[in-house]
Design goal:
By secondary structure, the protein is of the alpha+beta class. 38% of the residues lie in helices and 13% in strands.
Length: 363
C-alpha cells in the first residue's frame, strides 16, 4: 500500500477528502436523493441490484450515489456490504409462471395466449436526444396505460414446442441441493445451477460481448437463436419454516426472465430438436437476461457432443472472467506500488541486454 511511502497516510487521507468534495460539489443545485435515483435512474439501480447480488433498491441507489455514478464501483460497494448480512433462511424456488407481468413478448409466435405485452421499453423509441429533459419540461401521458396484469395466468410460449415434442425437456427438479456460489468456491466441471448463478451476477457488458460473439459465428454452431419468451414483472418470494410446516410469502421481487430457442441437428442418441437457453436476473435487465440465455446454451455444448472450440463454450474462461468485482480488483491492484517487483524486472532486462551486447561485440 502507499502508506509504506513517506507521507503516504496523509496523502491517502487527503485523496479521500478530495473524492468526498468531488461528490458534494453541487454548486447551486440540490443534492440528489435516493428516491430520485430509484425512480429516474431505474435501469442503473437494477443493474447494481443484479450484479451486487442483493435485492435492495435503496441500498443500490445509495451505492450509486456514493460511487458518483460509477456502476462497477457501486456494485463493489454493495457486494461488500452483502457479505456482512446474516442469512436466516433459504427461499423456495420462485414461480415465474405466476409472475405479475409488466412486459411479455415472444419473437417465435405472433399470436400467443394473452397477447404480446410490450410494456416499458426503449425498443420502439427513435433514440433521438430529448432536449425537453434539459429544462425538466417532459410531458407525462398516463391515459389508458395499464400498470400490471394482476392474477392473470399466461401460459409459457415454450409449451407449444414442448407439446409437439420438438423442444428438449427441462429438468423438473435437481437431484441434489442447489450449488450456492455465495458460500462455496467454484468447481469444475461446473453444473448448470452453478453457472446460472454466476452469470446472473456477472458483468452485463462482458456477457453481451460473449453472446454477440456466438451470434456472429463464434459459438456452438453459429446458429441464429430465437427469443421464445421474455417476461418482466414481479414474483412472490416464499420460505418454508419447518416450525410452521407450510410456505409463507415474505415479499415480492422484480425479475427479468428469458428463454431462448436454438437448433440442434441431433446425434446418434438424440433426435433433431430445439434446445433452450435460460436467463434470469433481478430487476429490469432484459438485455442481460437475453445474453445469459445465449451463454447458457453455449455452455451446454459438451452435453450435446458439440466440439468445444470457442471462448463462450469454455466454462473456465466464461465463469472466471465474468465477475466485474473480481476483475476490477485484479486490474486495479496494478495501481498499487510494485517497486520491488519492477526493480527485479529492470535488473533482469539490463542483464539480458548486457549479455546480448557482449555476444554481438564478440561476433
Amino acid at each position: 500500500m502507499y502508506v509504506a511511502v513517506k507521507g503516504g497516510e496523509k496523502a491517502i487521507n487527503s485523496s479521500i477528502e478530495l473524492l468526498d468534495q468531488k461528490r458534494k460539489h453541487i454548486s447551486s443545485n440540490q443534492d440528489i436523493n435516493i428516491s430520485q435515483l430509484i425512480e429516474q435512474l431505474s435501469f442503473a439501480v437494477d443493474r447494481v441490484v443484479s450484479e451486487g447480488s442483493l435485492y435492495d433498491k435503496n441500498l443500490s441507489a445509495l451505492s450509486i450515489k456514493q460511487a458518483q455514478g460509477d456502476l462497477v464501483e457501486a456494485i463493489f460497494i454493495l457486494r461488500a456490504y452483502r457479505t456482512t448480512l446474516e442469512r436466516f433462511s433459504y427461499s423456495v424456488p420462485i414461480d415465474t409462471s405466476s409472475m405479475t407481468l409488466k412486459r411479455r413478448i415472444s419473437a417465435t409466435y405472433k399470436d400467443i395466449p394473452g397477447g404480446q405485452i410490450l410494456g416499458p421499453t426503449f425498443d420502439y423509441t427513435h433514440r433521438l436526444l430529448d432536449f425537453s429533459l434539459l429544462n425538466g419540461k417532459e410531458t407525462s401521458n398516463k391515459k389508458n396505460t395499464p400498470t400490471s396484469n394482476d392474477n392473470v395466468f399466461f401460459p409459457r410460449v415454450m409449451e407449444f414446442l414442448n407439446n409437439e415434442g420438438l423442444m428438449e425437456k427441462e429438468i423438473e427438479k435437481l437431484k441434489s441441493k442447489p450449488f450456492d456460489i455465495t458460500r462455496e468456491p467454484m468447481k469444475f466441471p461446473a453444473s448448470r445451477d452453478q453457472w446460472l448463478q454466476i452469470l446472473s451476477r456477472s458483468d452485463e457488458g462482458f456477457l453481451l460481448g460473449l453472446s454477440y460473439s456466438a451470434i456472429r459465428g463464434f459459438g456452438s454452431k453459429g446458429t441464429h437463436p430465437f427469443v421464445g419468451e421474455i417476461r418482466y414483472g414481479f414474483v412472490e418470494v416464499k420460505i418454508y419454516p419447518e416450525e410452521l410446516g407450510f410456505e409463507i410469502c415474505v415479499g415480492e421481487i422484480e425479475v427479468s426472465e428469458c428463454e431462448m430457442v436454438d437448433q440442434f441437428e441431433g446425434s446418434k442418441k438424440i433426435a433433431p430438436q430445439f434446445t433452450r437457453g435460460y436467463g434470469l436476473t433481478f430487476g429490469y435487465n432484459e438485455r442481460k437476461a437475453m445474453s445469459i440465455s445465449i451463454i447458457d446454451r453455449a455452455l451446454k455444448s459438451e452435453e450435446y457432443g458439440e466440439e468445444i472450440k470457442f471462448p463462450i463454450q469454455d466454462q473456465e474462461f466464461v465463469l472466471y472472467h465474468s465477475d466485474n468485482v473480481e476483475a476490477q480488483g485484479f486490474v486495479s491492484h496494478l495501481k498499487l506500488p510494485h517497486y520491488v517487483d519492477f526493480q527485479g524486472e529492470l535488473n533482469l532486462i539490463r542483464e539480458l541486454r548486457k549479455k546480448i551486447l557482449k555476444e554481438n561485440k564478440d561476433d
